[in-house]
């Protein structure tokens, strides 16, 4: 469990990036911090591994302050995946993945064995092990970045807009890969994004932030979609533009899901009649 208690961060130029922020991040779930630029989400993320230190307040992992002990040792036991992968250009793929293990004193052969296992874990071909980052696609580089973040088998994985620099098709693939990995590994993931659709897809819990890391609403995707806290949240998730107000439309080719503006959003795999057969209405239910 990660806990922020009354945390503030003021930078030397006087910018107040975080103002009296408190939050409990549960273990073995994906918590997404989402907000526009300047909302303090990346600053919060980097406080967890002491890349940024709070001006006041406390950040704790399992009841122990992150300020206790050596910051380098702290970072080596927390996975960190950033935008543009952050790979070392002069290291091969296998050496990039093995970096933290080698820094922790693991023998080269053992570190490489673990790195090769992680290539499989993140869906990369073993043939890529000896290539360099410049020889990989953007999506492959991000997968290597995820593998490196997982190399030391950390309990906590920090992800700072890791899929923001790849094209939409690759981004969708990486999002699905993260969902698969989380089902299999059950890490405590803290994920930063400005994309509410990505937050709703990936998050077990979502924390929507305004300026200076003010929490506007937190909850599950269902809670936020069905009960936006205020007009700001409604606008942020797109409710005011009808992006989330979906209904069914019959076409000559079948049933289509459309938004409030009539734009098709997808097809219905199960027919409305089948849905009613599977979940018959009770006497108190209303059926359109």
Please give a structural write-up:
The protein is of the alpha/beta class. The chain folds into two domains: about 1-240, P-loop containing nucleotide triphosphate hydrolases (Rossmann fold, 3-Layer(aba) Sandwich); about 245-280, no CATH class. The chain is built from ten helices and 13 strands. The protein has helices at about 40-50, 70-75, 95-105, 110-120, 140-150, 170-185, 195-200, 220-225, 230-235, 270-280; strands spanning about 1-10, 15-25, 30-35, 55-60, 65, 80, 155-160, 190-195, 205-210, 215-220, 245-250, 255-260, 265. The protein has a six-stranded mixed sheet with strand order 6-7-8-3-9-10, sandwiched between helices. The radius of gyration is 22 Å and the shape is globular. Residues about 285-288 have low confidence and may be disordered.
Uncertain runs are 284-288
Please estimate the helix content: 25-40%
Number of strands: 13
Pairing-aware structural class of the strands and helices? alpha/beta
Q: Radius of gyration, Cα only, in angstroms? A: 22 Å
Regarding CATH, which class of the largest domain? Answer: Alpha Beta
Number of domains: 2
Estimate the global geometry from the Cα principal axes: globular
Instruction: Note the main sheet.
Output: 6 strands, mixed
Strand content: 25-35%
Using the 3D structure, state the CATH architecture of the largest domain.
3-Layer(aba) Sandwich
What is the succession of H and E elements? Answer: EEEHEEHEHHHEHEHEEHHEEEH
Helix segment tally: 10
Instruction: Give the strand order, joined by hyphens, for the main sheet.
Output: 6-7-8-3-9-10
CATH fold-level topology of the largest domain: Rossmann fold
């Amino acid at each position: 469990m990660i806990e922020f208690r009354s945390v503030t961060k003021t930078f030397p130029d006087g910018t107040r990036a975080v103002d009296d922020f408190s939050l409990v991040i549960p273990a073995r779930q994906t918590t997404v911090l989402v907000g526009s630029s300047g909302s303090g989400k990346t600053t919060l993320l980097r406080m967890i591994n002491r890349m940024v230190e709070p001006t006041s307040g406390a950040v704790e992992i399992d009841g122990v302050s992150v300020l206790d002990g050596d910051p380098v040792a702290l970072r080596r036991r927390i996975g960190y995946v950033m935008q543009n992968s952050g790979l070392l250009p002069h290291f091969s793929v296998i050496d990039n993945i093995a970096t933290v293990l080698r820094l922790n004193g693991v023998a080269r052969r053992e570190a490489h064995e673990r790195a090769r296992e992680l290539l499989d874990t993140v869906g990369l071909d073993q043939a890529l092990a000896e290539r360099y980052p410049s020889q990989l696609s953007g999506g492959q580089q991000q997968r290597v970045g995820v593998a490196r973040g997982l190399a030391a088998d950390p309990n906590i994985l920090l992800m700072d807009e890791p899929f923001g620099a790849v094209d939409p098709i690759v981004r969708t693939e990486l999002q699905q890969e993260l969902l698969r990995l989380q089902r299999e590994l059950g890490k405590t993931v803290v994920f930063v994004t400005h994309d509410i659709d990505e937050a709703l897809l990936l998050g077990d819990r979502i924390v929507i932030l305004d300026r200076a890391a003010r929490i506007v609403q937190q909850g599950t995707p269902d809670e936020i979609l069905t009960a936006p806290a205020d007009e700001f949240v409604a606008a942020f998730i797109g409710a005011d533009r009808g992006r989330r107000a979906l209904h069914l439309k019959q076409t000559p080719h079948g049933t289509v899901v459309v938004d409030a503006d009539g734009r098709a959003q997808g097809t219905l795999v199960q027919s409305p009649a089948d849905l009613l057969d599977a979940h018959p209405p009770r006497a108190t239910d209303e059926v359109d």
